Amino acid sequence: MEIIDNPRDMQSLAASWQAQGIRTVLVPTMGYFHQGHLSLMEYGREVGSRLIVSLFVNPLQFGPNEDYQRYPRDLIRDAGMAEEVGVDILYTPRAKHLYPPGYQTYVTVDSLSQGLCGAFRPGHFRGVATVVLKLFNQTRPQVAIFGEKDYQQLVIIKRLVADLDLPITIIGRPIVRELDGLAMSSRNAYLSPPERSSALCLYRSLLAARELVAAGERSRQAILDTVQQIIAATPYTRLDYAELVDPETLEKVQVLRGAARLMLAVWVGSTRLIDNTLLKET
Ligand code: PAF
Predict the structure, then answer these.
(1) Which of 38, 11, 17 shows the shortest CA–CA distance to 27?
(2) Model confidence over 130-184: pLDDT tens digits?
(3) Which residue in 62, 78, 188, 232 has a CA-CA distance of 20 to 30 Å to 271?
(4) Would you state the CATH architecture of domain 186-280?
(5) Closest ligand 1 atom number to CA of residue 157
């Protein structure tokens, strides 16, 4: 595995692979790898002949009072894990190269970015869309793989690619969970032992909602009431939002017909966790 940190070197290697018709896959990450990241990489290995993993903690997608500074970082550990999975290139650009002085171009995916996390993290998806487009331009993948835990991000990236006519196939992969159901996230590292127990309320809410739907419940209000009660009864937690949305447009769904996505963002102590699940009529 090679580590490349210079965008020009990355771009010229990617261009030569493209000229040779080599099928390149990109897995964009912010590092501090866990099994969720590794599962995206393993899948990437299967669907392409070259696998690039980008590792960049993107300052543009963090608000002024968010965790950019304390976001966990460990390049040596990450490089070892990536190498083991068979990554070809670990691409680790620096902020000063991606956003040099004078930088002023940003990508906004309009209404999809406004609700859910967008409402609580102003500018977050503008930062995500901007860096992802830059990473696409630097690595020129035919395929890019994202996790469904960041479901709104996945929908936004698919829209970006369609709207800007990018010749890239976006693949979303299922959430990877700890044995007890907690969705894997680099931010889980922030949780104290009691907070770690409380964090399970997200998964318990999703399961409760699934059970309600299996028992015939279709009303948004009834589903969200149950979720809100579970979160409210759990110590150290504060709900940002629980929403039932259309899986493609992310618009609110009043009555479940066919399928909807239940989306959650919950503070556990000073850690903000997100999770989601597909709810389907049977
Ligand atoms: O999901 C993430 O880790 C980040 O939002 C991404 C897609 C790597 C962009 O910085």
Answers:
(1) 38
(2) 999 999 999 999 999 999 999 999 999 999 999 999 999 999 999 999 999 999 9
(3) 78
(4) 2-Layer Sandwich (3.30)
(5) 7
37 tagged catalytic? yes
Q: Which residue has the tokens 């104290």?
A: 192
257 neighbors 218 (Cβ within 8 angstroms): yes
What is the average pLDDT across 58-68?
Answer: 97
* Cα–Cα–Cα angle for 271, 149, 68, rounded to 5 degrees: 40
Inter-residue contact 118 to 125 (CB < 8 Å): yes
DSSP 137: H
Q: Per-domain residue ranges for the chain?
A: 2-173, 186-280
Cβ of 28 less than 6 Å from ligand 1: yes
Cα(233) to ligand 1 centroid in Å equals 31
15, 138 Cβ separation under 8 angstroms:
no
Kindly report the backbone phi and psi dihedral angles of residue 171, in degrees, each rounded to the nearest multiple of 5, phi listed first.
-115, 130
29 CA closest ligand 1 atom index:
8
> For 2-173, which CATH superfamily applies?
HUPs (3.40.50.620)
- Judge contact between 244 and 223, C-beta under 8 A: yes
> Is 117 a pocket residue for ligand 1 (Cβ < 6 Å)?
no
- Would the pLDDT of 282 be above 90? no
Tens-digit pLDDT profile for residues 194-209: 999 999 999 999 999 9
Ligand 1 neighbourhood includes 58 CB (under 6 angstroms)? yes
107 lines ligand 1 (CB under 6 A): no
